[in-house]
Amino acid sequence: AAAVAIIILFVVKSVVTKMDEAVEKVAIDFDRVMKLKYPKKWERFMVEEGNGSVMDEGDRIQMIVEQMEQYRKEEPEFMERVMRDIDRLS
Can you list the positions of beta strands (E) in 21-77? Predict the structure, then answer.
């Protein structure tokens, strides 16, 4: 039973890791599209990136994901347009 539990834990960890990697990739692509096509809307993130302080990559990804969620709720049409732009760049 313990061996089965260990195997299940490894599988769950693998799935979570893959999900984290997928979220990170989407966030990085979103950041790239925003910088290229919508710099005015993305100005705050570009200033934070360029102010000389070093932000942890994980913290930056988290901020991007939170902003994506805010756009999804408050500006769904804009978010759809950005996601189409990401598809075109991929």
Answer: none
Burial of 57 (0-12, 13-18, 19+ CB in 10 A): exposed
The model's pLDDT over 5-20, given as tens digits with 9 standing for 90+, comes to: 888 888 888 887 888 8
Name the pTM for this structure. 0.76
Handedness of CA 66, 67, 68, 73 (dihedral sign): positive
Angstrom distance (rounded) from CA 4 to CA 54: 43
49 burial (CB, 10 Å; 0-12 / 13-18 / 19+) is middle
Helix-then-strand count for the chain, H and E: 4, 0
